[in-house]
Design brief:
alpha/beta, about 15% strand, five-stranded parallel sheet, 23 helices
Length: about 625
C-alpha cells in the first residue's frame, strides 16, 4: 500500500526541517544544528507527528514559539514554520531587523500573499539581511493528522469554523464566506500533501455544498495554471493509485446529530468522551493516595500527568477500536506476561548470586551467563513495555472510574436500543429521574438522542413532563430548544437519518475477565459486545464508493476539477467503484464515526477510507455549542 496521509505529512515536515531538501538516507553524517521557530498552528501540526527526540535527531536543538522572547543566536540557521498572518509577518520582519539568526528559512503553513511577501522583502532590505533570507516556501500543510487515516483542520481558533459558527441564525454572508474559505484552504493543503485530485460528491443545499463548490474552483484554478500547478511532476507519481483518483465525500454535521452525543464503548472514543484527550495526548489528574489529609490541612494538590498515545504504541494501535472490557482484559494479560519476564531476570540473577551486582559485573562472568546476558539486553525493551503497560493501566482505570460512577454502560446500551428502534426495558423517564445514573449532561445527551431519532416527536404534555424531569436532574435545557428548531427544519427538508440495526449483545456481567488478581475491579459493569453496523456517514460513503443507486445519495452533486468545463451535473462520469475515499464532515466530527468507518473499511478488503472533520469534539463540547445555539 502506498503511503498514508500521516506518512506523507511527516515526510513533508522532515524535508522542511532539512532545509527543504530530501533528508539523507545515511544518518552517519552529523545533522546541521538549527533552531525551529513556530507559532501555535505549527506546533499543533508537528506535535502529533514528531517527538522532541526525533526533532533532536534532525538537528533541531531548540524549538521556540514565534511570539516568545527569543535571544539572538547569531551563528545558527533558523527554520520558521508559521501561518502567513499579519502579526506573524510583522514579527518575522522584527527578527530580521534585530539580526537574531545567521540565516532564515521561512516556511508558511499555508500560501502567503504577494503583499505580505513584499513586506518581508522590504524589512530584509531595510535590515540589510537580504542574503540571509535563504528560502521562502509555501508548505501547504495547514491540517493536523492524528492517525494514518484521520485528520482534522485546526485546533487553534477552532471556534471560528465550529458547528456553532456555521449554524448560528444571525450569520452574515461575508462571515459564512470567510468560514468556507478557511475550510477550503485547509482541504486544498490536504490534497496537495496527498498528491491527488479527488472527485467530489456532496449533498445539496447546506454548508457541505458550499465547501464543495469552492474547493472545486480552487483545485481547478490550480490545475489550469500549468506552470505553477501543485499537482504535476514528481509529487503526483507518489499518488496512491496514481491512475485512480480518490473519492471525496463531503458530509454535513446536520445529517446526523445523534452520533456526536452518543455514549460509546470503544477505547479511543471513550477516552475522548470522558477524559481530557487532545491531539493524541491524554491529561490525567492523579489522585494523590487514599490517605486522608489531617483535618485542617490543605488538601494535597492533584498531580497532572500527560501521556502520548502514538503510532509506535503497539497496544494502542491494536486496541484503540476495541470494546472497553476487551481492553481491560488485554492490559491485564500484558501485565502478567511482563511480570513473568521480570521474574525470570530476577531468578537468573539470584541463581548466580548476583542479587545486588551491577550489569558490568554480570557481563564479565563465564558463558553460564549467556542466558542472563540475553535477559539483561532485553531490559530496555522490557522497560519500554512496562512504561506502556503503566500508561494503559492508568488511562483504562481512569476510564473505568467514569464508567462506574456514571453508569455509562447502561447509557450506551439504552441509546443503542433507541437508535436501532429495539424494545426498551426501562422507560426513558425512569432513566432521567434515576439520581444514581449519570451526570445531568449524560441525561441530556440521552434525551436528545431520543428526541432526534424518534419518528414522532413526543406530545406537548409528554415533553413538559420530560422537561420537568430534566430540570429536576439539573440539566440545562438550552440544547433542546435548538434541537427542536433543527428537527422542525429537517422535517421539511428530509427524513431523519436511520442508524441501521445496530445494537449490542450483553455477554452477562464481566466476571470472567475480572478474576481476583486483576487490576480492574469491574463488577457490575456490563460486558457488551458490539455488532457491526453502519452509521449514516458510513452508509452514505458505501453508496457513493460502490456507485449504488439509493434515494439517500442519488441527488448528491458531482464535481471533477480535472474536467475543463465545470459541469453542473450530479451524473457521475465514471461508473467504476472507487478504491480509495476520504469522508469529510463539515461542522465537526468524533471518534465514534471514525471508528465506525475503520470498521466499515475492514469489511472491504483492498479499499482505503480516510476520515476528516473541521474540528474534533466530544459530546460535552458539542452540547456546549448546541446550548449556545439554543439560548433564548
Amino acid at each position: 500500500m502506498a503511503a498514508s496521509i500521516r506518512e506523507k505529512q511527516t515526510a513533508a515536515l522532515r524535508r522542511m526541517l532539512n532545509f527543504n531538501a530530501p533528508p539523507l538516507k545515511n544518518s552517519a553524517a552529523e545533522p546541521v544544528w538549527k533552531v525551529l521557530i513556530y507559532d501555535r498552528f505549527g506546533q499543533d501540526i508537528i506535535s502529533p507527528l514528531l517527538s522532541v527526540k526525533e526533532l533532536r535527531d534532525m538537528g533541531i536543538t531548540l524549538h521556540l514559539l514565534l511570539h516568545s522572547d527569543r535571544d539572538p543566536i547569531p551563528d545558527v540557521p533558523a527554520i520558521y514554520f508559521v501561518m502567513p498572518t499579519e502579526e506573524n509577518v510583522d514579527r518575522i520582519c522584527q527578527d530580521l531587523r534585530n539580526q537574531l539568526y545567521e540565516s532564515y528559512y521561512l516556511n508558511f503553513i499555508s500560501a502567503i500573499s504577494r503583499s505580505k511577501l513584499e513586506d518581508i522583502a522590504g524589512a530584509a532590505l531595510g535590515a540589510n539581511a537580504v542574503s540571509q533570507v535563504t528560502k521562502v516556501f509555501d508548505q501547504y500543510l495547514n491540517f493536523i493528522t492524528l492517525e494514518d487515516d484521520m485528520f482534522v483542520l485546526c485546533n487553534q481558533n477552532k471556534e471560528l469554523i465550529s458547528y456553532h459558527a456555521i449554524n448560528k441564525p444571525d450569520i452574515m454572508d461575508t462571515e459564512m464566506d470567510a468560514i468556507m474559505d478557511t475550510i477550503v484552504d485547509s482541504l486544498f493543503c490536504f490534497f496537495v500533501t496527498l498528491g491527488a485530485v479527488p472527485i467530489i460528491r456532496c449533498p445539496r443545499g447546506n454548508a457541505a455544498e458550499m465547501v464543495a463548490v469552492k474547493l472545486d474552483k480552487k483545485l481547478r484554478e490550480n490545475l489550469r495554471d500549468a506552470r505553477n500547478s501543485l499537482f504535476t511532476g514528481d509529487t503526483m507519481g507518489a499518488g496512491q493509485f496514481s491512475f485512480q483518483r480518490p473519492l471525496f465525500v463531503l458530509a454535513d454535521r446536520n445529517l446526523d446529530l445523534a452520533t456526536p452525543l452518543h455514549h460509546t464503548w470503544t477505547y479511543q472514543a471513550l477516552i475522548h468522551d470522558v477524559l481530557d484527550f487532545h491531539l493524541n495526548r491524554v491529561n490525567l489528574e492523579e489522585s494523590s493516595g487514599p490517605e486522608a489529609s489531617p483535618s485542617g490541612a490543605r488538601p494535597k494538590k492533584k498531580n497532572k500527568k500527560s501521556y502520548d498515545l502514538t503510532a509506535a504504541d503497539r497496544f494502542w494501535q491494536k486496541h484503540k477500536g476495541s470494546p472497553f472490557p476487551e481492553v481491560a482484559e488485554s492490559v491485564q494479560q500484558e501485565l502478567d506476561t511482563y511480570r513473568a519476564q521480570e521474574d525470570e531476570v530476577k531468578r537468573l540473577k539470584s541463581i548466580m548470586g548476583l542479587e545486588g551486582e551491577d550489569e558490568g559485573a554480570i557481563s564479565m562472568l563465564s558463558d553460564n551467563t549467556a542466558k542472563l546476558t540475553s535477559a539483561v539486553s532485553s531490559l530496555p525493551e522490557l522497560l519500554e513495555k512496562k512504561r506502556l503497560i503503566d500508561l494503559h493501566t492508568n488511562v483504562a482505570t481512569a476510564v473505568l472510574d467514569n464508567i462506574k460512577t456514571r453508569k455509562l454502560d447502561v447509557y450506551f446500551e439504552y441509546e443503542e436500543k433507541l437508535m436501532s428502534k429495539s424494545t426498551l426495558d426501562k422507560s426513558l423517564l425512569d432513566m432521567i429521574s434515576d439520581p444514581d445514573a449519570g451526570t445531568p449532561e449524560d441525561k441530556m445527551r440521552l434525551f436528545l438522542i431520543y428526541y432526534i431519532t424518534s419518528q414522532q416527536p413526543p406530545t406537548e404534555t409528554d415533553l413538559e413532563q420530560y422537561k420537568r424531569a430534566l430540570t429536576d436532574a439539573g440539566c440545562n435545557l438550552a440544547p433542546l430548544n435548538y434541537i427542536k428548531q433543527w428537527k422542525a427544519f429537517t422535517k421539511m427538508a428530509a427524513t431523519p437519518a436511520s442508524y441501521g440495526n445496530s445494537g449490542t449483545k450483553p455477554m452477562g456481567l464481566i466476571s470472567r475477565v475480572m478474576n481476583t488478581g486483576s487490576q480492574f475491579v469491574m463488577e457490575g459493569v456490563k460486558n457488551l459486545v458490539l455488532k457491526q453496523h453502519n452509521l449514516p456517514v458510513a452508509r452514505i460513503l458505501d453508496n457513493l464508493m460502490d456507485m449504488k443507486c439509493n434515494p439517500e445519495t442519488d441527488d448528491y452533486r458531482y464535481f471533477d476539477p480535472k474536467m475543463l468545463r465545470g459541469s453542473e451535473s450530479s451524473i457521475p462520469r465514471n461508473k467504476n467503484p472507487f478504491q480509495e475515499a476520504i469522508v469529510f464532515v463539515v461542522g465537526g466530527g468524533n471518534y465514534i464515526e471514525y471508528q465506525n468507518l475503520v470498521d466499515y473499511a475492514k469489511t472491504k478488503p483492498g479499499k482505503r477510507v480516510m476520515y476528516g472533520c473541521s474540528e474534533l469534539f466530544n459530546a460535552s463540547q458539542f452540547l456546549k455549542q448546541l446550548s449556545q445555539l439554543g439560548q433564548k
